[in-house]
Amino acid sequence: MSDLDGGRPAKSSKVGTIVIVVVIVAIVIAAALFAWHGLTAPISPSTTGATTPSTSASPTSGPSETPSESVDPNRILVSQAVPGVCFDQQAMSDSNGTYIWTIDCNQPHDSEVFYAASLPEGAYPDTTGWQANVLQYCHPAFATYVGVAYGETTLQISYLHPSEDVWNGGNRMLVCYAVDAAGPRTSSIKGG
After folding, report:
1. Is the pLDDT reported for residue 42 higher than 90?
2. pLDDT for 113 beyond 50
3. 145: Cβ–Cβ under 8 A, 6 or more apart, which residues?
4. Which of 38, 66, 93, 192 has the fewest Cβ atoms nearer than 10 Å?
């Protein structure tokens, strides 16, 4: 206070108070905008150990596709597949072999998992190695699950395997499934 202003506070304290209020309001607005952006920004999907679809013992390895961001209770990672899971091959292929959308086996479907297991540690298999794995693991599992040898049925064996980088990261899952060439079916292939 000064003697000249009759005991009133100096103008600079009013300006200081206004500046503080403006700064606080600006901080609140910035925080609100930041929070709003965090709620509405697209989620960056992560790579989840994508596998590559293969059919009739001629596998291909390709880049993984970014999985869909929507959550579907029937969607599982291929690495979570177990024997008895029925699905449509096209939907799985559309996700680049990353996901399977499970279907009740009594509903129309064209594919069914009959073998899913992690392979032993070792070097990443080349095309010949994957074909050998299919013969070693998928063919006997098919006969056990279906109840007849692979060559005695019109079902086709297809399989999924991890890409090399996923394999090197520890996911060595081989998933074998049967595709009904006759088209959609409304029953399980399990017979054995």
Report:
1. no
2. yes
3. 83, 114, 115, 189, 190, 191, 192
4. 38
DSSP sequence for the chain: --TTTTTPPPHHHHHHHHHHHHHHHHHHHHHHHHHHHHHHSPP-PPP---EEEEETTEE---PPPPPPSS--TTEEEGGG--TT-EE-HHHHHHTTTSEEEEE-TTS-BSEEEEEEEEPPSSSPP-HHHHHHHIIIIIHHHHHHHHSS-GGGSSEEEEEEEE-HHHHHTT--EEEEEEEETT--BSS-----
Domain ranges of the chain: 1-41, 51-180
Which structure tokens are listed for 92?
């799985």
Query: Does 23 score more than 80 pLDDT?
Result: no
- Cα gap 136→27, rounded to integer Å: 65
Res. 33: pLDDT tops 70: no
Comparison of pLDDT for 133 and 73, the residue scoring more: 133
Beta bridge mates, 179: 111, 156
Distances in whole angstroms, Cα of residue 159 to Cα of each of 9, 79, 87, 128, 145: 83, 12, 13, 14, 15
